[in-house]
Amino acid sequence: TELLTRGGKDIAFSDYCPLLEGPPAGLVHHSCSLFGEGTRGLQDMGPVVHALCEELLSSGGRGLDPSPAVTRVTNVVCMLVFGASYRRGDSELQEVLQYNDGIVQTIAAGGLVDIYPWMKVFPNETLRRLKSCIAVRDRLLTRKLEEHKATLGDGQPRDLLDALLMGQVDRGRSQESEGLEDETITDDHVLMTAAEAFGAGVETTSTTLLWILAYLLHHPRVQEQVQKELDEHVGRERLVRLSDRAKLTYLDCVINEGMRICPVSPVLIP
User: Is residue 243 part of a domain?
Assistant: First the structure.
């Protein structure tokens, strides 16, 4: 995790520190407030949803493994985190998918090197792969960070990376005006927080979708009830909006039940 987070400069693996609290609000809380927690951006995901549905329907009724198609949620998370939208087969998207999958597999496998750090001096294929994936991730995110810095404005943040940069600037101004000498928010904090939001967003969303799909296949009555509720409150002429959520109580229950039965991270993180 030291390698993954540049010494705990993210949120999940960091130690408690002044960066996580006021004034102004901690980096993530302040940035999410600026960004509106991404809810505005979610309204623009229609093309991604259509592409996913078309890919699933293209099987023509034959059995298929939906896992590759469901990973298209990566495109949604890319748009929310650093404002990038990819076409299917895009080389950069493939790079993103590969490095994220590599990090998830190596971290999920666990390793003695986490328990006994001195073992890092011995040959370790899992650790070598993790370092390689981290290098690819850092190269891509650093490029995105520099692009965002060059085009950052004073208006509404375009994505989470914009919001994090604005939070970094606001924190610096507040410290300067109040004569504070707290630990500053560095580019490493911004990059690692964005990387964490991306990694967590992709893996948790795709895993949750796959489990809910699996349960719906085995419970056709629930499928019918969900579709009935959608037809009644949304219709078939448009996509579901976040503003519809209050009316879609049964669908909300189905999602919550899926996450209850098969929690993405039942024992949380180390």
Answer: no
Residue 189 located in a structural domain: yes
On whether the pTM is more than 0.90, the answer is no
**Is residue 210 within 8 Å of residue 70, measured between CB atoms?**
yes
Q: How many domains does the chain have?
A: 1
Of 28, 17, 81, 71, residue with least CA distance to 48 = 71
Instruction: Tell me the pLDDT tens digit for each residue of 97-145.
Output: 888 888 888 876 666 777 777 877 887 888 888 899 999 999 999 999 9
CA distances from 5 to 15, 76, 160 (A): 12, 23, 18
Q: What is the Cα–Cα distance from 24 to 173, expressed in whole angstroms?
A: 10
State the Cα–Cα distance between residues 209 and 211, nearest whole angstrom.
6
**Tell me, what's the pLDDT at 25?**
40
Among candidate residues 94, 76, 85, the one with its CA nearest the CA of residue 197: 76
132 Cβ contact list (under 8 Å, min separation 6): 102
Is residue 114 in some structural domain? yes
Task: Note the pLDDT tens digit of each residue in 11-58.
Answer: 777 776 655 554 334 566 656 655 555 555 566 677 777 877 888 888
C-alpha–C-alpha distance, residues 142 and 188, integer Å: 10
Domain hosting 151: range is 2-218
